[in-house]
Design goal:
BirA Bifunctional Protein, domain 2, 16 strands, 5-stranded mixed β-barrel, 12 helices, binds aspartyl-adenosine-5'-monophosphate, alpha+beta, OB fold (Dihydrolipoamide Acetyltransferase, E2P), 28% helix
Length: 439
């Protein structure tokens, strides 16, 4: 028989229970991380969204009927009414002596994954049971850091006169060239899920001047790596009256500020993940290397054979990441491997484009954009794209489009790095990959 919630309401989260509350009655609610029955003594670790507290039942101290009937399974959903007591041996130096316990929901005897923190279940199994898995202390730490990261980014940008925009995720034609799109059926027409906010953020830089969006984008890449997912969460940013150089400065200041905020406000989560000594304030400005310098280094030092105009392979990035472990920029990529909207350099072999790297991982790409309509039409044609498919976008360039520059940053990849995780899927609540559409 389950108990009714009735008029019980939580008075505190576990993290709010401190020594100011000694001898006071509180109502806590959450899940049973651990239950130990030692005969005359029973311990419950009660966990909620912010942490855990020990509930202690000692025979003779608590009501006898309560003592006898308290038998709990892992992850039972319970509420506890009890008195806060000081007890140095308990975690945090505090325990709760219960007067009543309500069992609001139960669980099977055997859970699909370990929730005590004693062993780590395999990632795919955890992802299959994600809502349960997300209750783990490790996941609590990861997603507290994510929350702080997003808060920090927004605060930073609002303080600098940015406008948060929201652009369509259902689109009629490609933004990043024709590949890697998910087609969908839109009534009688074919449509697509957006790959990035690129075209809309450019258009809106001609309205609100400094814009950003944090949103889902969809990449139909069949890449089964620890760095790729099909539904990504990106920060897209665009600044009018600016070039790549201005954007590099804003980006590094934003990265610095986010790590500062995370260290200030989420140190215990960093410590839990054992990254408090590695997720540290980077030195700014970040070093800037040109693409050509980077491929020379890779070729000469690591005996690769990358020609100008080739992308840098994963293996080459891996070596590069051993050489440069921090944040750094790679600029002036060959125009031939950049999207149509990127501004060519004075020597059109190169482009006004950049990536922000952290070690081997690409976190961001961006650059100065073309703002002249004729030049943009030519750029589309050069990439083998049909300007007619971009008519509505191109039309906006008739009405005084300012020079502009921006970037797109993969939040999931950044969180993977900040939390020292091995696999990007750990940094996403419900990841989508070529092999995973549920839960
Ligand atoms: P790009 O395609 O490089 O640029 O994407 C920007 C950033 O998004 C992240 N990212 C991914 N993360 C995980 N899995 C994927 N499959 C994946 N694909 C991309 C990366 C990447 O750096 N419109 C341009 C940006 C711009 O110029 O403003 C764009 O979308 O961290």
């Amino acid at each position: 028989m389950l108990d009714e919630l009735g008029d019980w309401r939580k008075t505190h989260y576990t993290k709010e229970i401190n020594s100011d509350l000694i001898d006071e009655e509180v109502f806590l609610g959450g899940w049973v991380r651990n239950f130990r029955d030692l005969g005359g003594l029973k311990f419950i670790s009660l966990q909620d969204k912010f942490g855990e507290r020990q509930i202690t039942l000692k025979k003779g101290v608590v009501d006898n009927e309560l003592f006898e009937k308290t038998k709990l399974g892992y992850q039972y959903c319970i509420m506890v009414k009890g008195i806060v007591k000081k007890f140095n041996e308990a975690p945090g130096g505090i325990e709760i002596i219960p007067s009543e316990i309500k069992i609001l929901n139960t669980t099977p005897d055997k859970l699909p994954i370990d929730m005590t923190g004693e062993t780590v279940s395999e990632l795919d199994l955890r992802l299959n049971n994600r809502a349960l898995d997300l209750r783990s202390l490790k996941n609590q730490a990861i997603f507290e850091i994510r929350g702080e990261l997003l808060r920090s980014i927004r605060n930073f940008l609002f303080e600098r006169n940015f406008t948060e925009i929201t652009t369509p995720k259902i689109i009629g034609s490609a933004t990043e060239g024709g590949t890697e799109l998910f087609p969908i059926i839109y009534f009688e027409e074919e449509a697509f899920l957006t790959q990035s906010a690129q075209l809309y953020k450019e258009q809106l830089s001609g309205v609100y001047e400094r814009v950003f969006e944090i949103s889902d984008c969809f990449r139909a890449e069949k890449s089964r790596t620890k760095r790729h997912i099909c539904e990504i969460f990106t920060l897209d940013l665009e600044i009018a009256f600016s070039t790549m150089e201005d954007v590099l400065k804003i980006l590094e200041a934003m990265v610095y500020n986010a790590i500062k905020d995370i260290r200030e406000n989420q140190m215990s989560a960093l410590k839990y993940l054992k990254v408090d000594k590695t997720t540290i304030l980077p030195e700014i400005p970040f070093p800037i290397y040109k693409y050509e310098e980077i491929i020379d280094l890779i070729n000469n030092k690591f005996s690769f054979d990358i020609d100008f105009g080739e992308d840098i392979s994963t293996e080459a990035y891996r070596k590069l990441g051993e050489e440069f472990i921090g944040y750094y920029y790679i600029t002036h990529w060959p125009m031939s491997i950049k999207p149509f909207y990127i501004m060519p350099s004075i020597n059109p072999k190169y482009s006004e484009s950049f990536d922000l790297q952290k070690g081997m991982l690409e976190l961001t790409s961006g650059g100065t954009r073309i703002h002249n309509k004729v030049q943009l039409i030519n750029a589309l044609e050069e990439k083998g794209l049909n300007p007619l498919a971009f008519t509505s976008h191109l039309n906006t360039f008739d009405y005084g489009m300012p020079p502009h520059a921006g970037f797109g940053l993969g939040i999931d990849r950044w969180l993977t790095i900040l939390c020292g995780l091995d696999d990007i899927r750990e940094a996403v609540m419900y990841p989508r990959t070529p092999d995973r559409l549920t839960p």
